[in-house]
Write a structure and sequence with these properties.
By secondary structure, this protein is mainly alpha-helical. It is built from 6 helices and 3 strands. A 3-stranded antiparallel sheet has the order 1-3-2. One of its GO terms (molecular function) is DNA-binding transcription factor activity. This is MarR family transcriptional regulator.
Length: about 140
Amino acid sequence: MELAQLAGRLCAVLDATTNSRVAQYGLTRADYDVLAALRSAGGELRLKPTELAARCRLSSGGTSNVLRRMSESGYVVREADLADGRSAWAQLTEEGLLVTTRIQDAVAAVQERRLALLPPGAVDALSALLAQAADVLEAAE
């Protein structure tokens, strides 16, 4: 089987785990991706919508829709950028941080159980090879 097909199969299995946990919280995968990106932003847990769109591979309109839903759910607040009146920050709320952490913990637990079925060292070796392949192929573009 071709490498891209195998990578796609692996991605589909891992994504299904994530998507099922995300759905338990009434969120879409795009919602979760935005919340997770904000959580990983560090510091004040905030990013500009353009940064979120790039990190989550969403269109600007898709990002706006997700931010609106997450704001209505109380997971994100929008704050004006005082240094640049044309833009705003999207910031994770305490409730947003809590739900994101719960989902990430649930996903990690399921994936750990599944990946434990592989031989010892296989996950680390596979991760290293995939990272190397991604780096080389991205640099070649």
